């Protein structure tokens, strides 16, 4: 049996938009879509589940649908469900969130603790419908973004679209280097930023030779570089390291900012 794509619903418009996006995504990957509602209080949600199912069928009539209602904490239920899911899809805002929050508390909690990729459906109609024809992936130094890069290539492949790989870097604070050495030259003493990007893309480029790839090396904050790149993208993909000795992911300041402000759907992919 194929591993499903799971989408969480709570009756908010944001969660129903997530259902529509997830239905299209399930078809792209030829997997079932599982609609999940979980809440600590037991009440009749049959109309809610029926409405979500109808939205999914309207967007993707051929999608294989199932649904489930659980009486337990929503974040815990979603994290548990994610252990056997291709990915978890969530809306950017929930019914219970405070008006001042840019991201629902359930979505943020799930993003910090799930074992599978988390997709938060953000942005307007154009990126949700895939009209830009571009996936953006953030590439870190080291091994933190390897799984995210693989995920991004696969998405660009199934979408038949372009991939933009972005690596942002800056000279470490308190390390001015030799007099007269430029920032790029200083960074190159360790490992040239362009080489970081090339190394990260080498293997997946060989596996996905049909995906057109462009590269962007930016000197400056990763948050700003990725938000700018995502302004005309259908999907933004970033990686997250696992915490040593703790349950969940190390989202970091950049991922927190992107989850709150991304102009398009964003995927947080755990490092394997």
Element layout with pairings:
Layout: E1 5-8, H1 13-29, E2 33-38, H2 46-59, E3 65-70, H3 74-81, E4 87-91, H4 105-113, E5 118-121, H5 125-128, E6 134-138, H6 146-159, E7 162-169, H7 183-190, H8 193-207, E8 213-219, H9 222-229, E9 235-242, E10 249-250, H10 252-261, E11 266-270
Biggest sheet character:
11 strands, mixed
- Counted up, domains total 2
Structural class: alpha/beta
Could you give the count of β-strands?
11
Q: Mean of the pLDDT scores?
A: 86
Shape: globular
- Terminal Cα span: 23 Å
Supply Rg: 19 Å
The name of the CATH architecture of the largest domain is: 3-Layer(aba) Sandwich
Strand content range:
15-25%
Query: How is the CATH topology of the largest domain named?
Result: Rossmann fold
Order of helices and strands: EHEHEHEHEHEHEHHEHEEHE
Estimated helix fraction: 25-40%
* CATH secondary-structure class of the largest domain: Alpha Beta
Uncertain residue ranges: 96-102
List keywords for this structure.
272 residues, alpha/beta, Rossmann fold
Q: Could you please describe the fold and organization of this structure?
A:
The chain is an alpha/beta fold and 272 residues long. The chain folds into two domains: 117 residues, 3-Layer(aba) Sandwich (Rossmann fold); 144 residues, Rossmann fold (3-Layer(aba) Sandwich). Helix content is 39%, strand content 22%. It is built from ten helices and eleven strands. Strands 1, 2, 3, 4, 5, 6, 7, 8, 9, 10 and 11 form an eleven-stranded mixed sheet that branches. Helix 1 links the parallel strand 1 and strand 2. Helix 1 packs across helix 2 and helix 3 packs parallel to helix 4. The longest helix has 17 residues. About 3% of the residues have low confidence.
């Amino acid at each position: 049996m194929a591993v499903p794509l799971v989408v969480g619903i709570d009756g908010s418009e944001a969660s129903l938009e997530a259902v529509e996006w997830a239905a299209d995504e399930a078809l792209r990957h030829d997997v079932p879509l599982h609609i999940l509602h979980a809440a600590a209080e037991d009440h009749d949600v049959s109309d809610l589940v029926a409405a979500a199912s109808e939205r999914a069928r309207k967007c993707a009539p051929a999608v294989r649908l199932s649904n489930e209602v659980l009486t337990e904490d929503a974040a815990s239920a979603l994290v548990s469900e994610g252990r056997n899911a291709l990915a978890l899809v969530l809306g950017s805002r929930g019914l219970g969130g405070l008006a001042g929050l840019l991201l629902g508390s359930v979505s943020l909690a799930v993003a910090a603790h799930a074992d599978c990729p988390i997709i938060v459906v953000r942005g307007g109609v154009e990126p949700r419908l895939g009209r830009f024809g571009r996936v953006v992936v953030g590439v870190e130094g080291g091994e933190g973004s390897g799984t995210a890069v693989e995920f991004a290539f696969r998405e660009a492949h199934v979408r038949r679209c372009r991939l933009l790989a972005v690596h942002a870097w800056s000279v470490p604070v308190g390390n001015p280097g030799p007099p007269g050495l430029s920032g790029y030259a200083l960074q190159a003493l360790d490992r040239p930023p362009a080489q970081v990007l090339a190394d990260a893309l080498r293997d997946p480029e060989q596996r996905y030779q049909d995906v057109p790839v462009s590269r962007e090396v930016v000197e400056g904050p990763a948050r700003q570089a990725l938000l700018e790149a995502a302004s005309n993208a259908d999907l933004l993909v970033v990686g997250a390291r696992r915490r040593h000795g703790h349950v969940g992911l190390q989202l970091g300041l950049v991922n927190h900012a992107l989850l709150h402000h991304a102009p398009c759907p964003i995927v947080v992919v755990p490092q394997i």
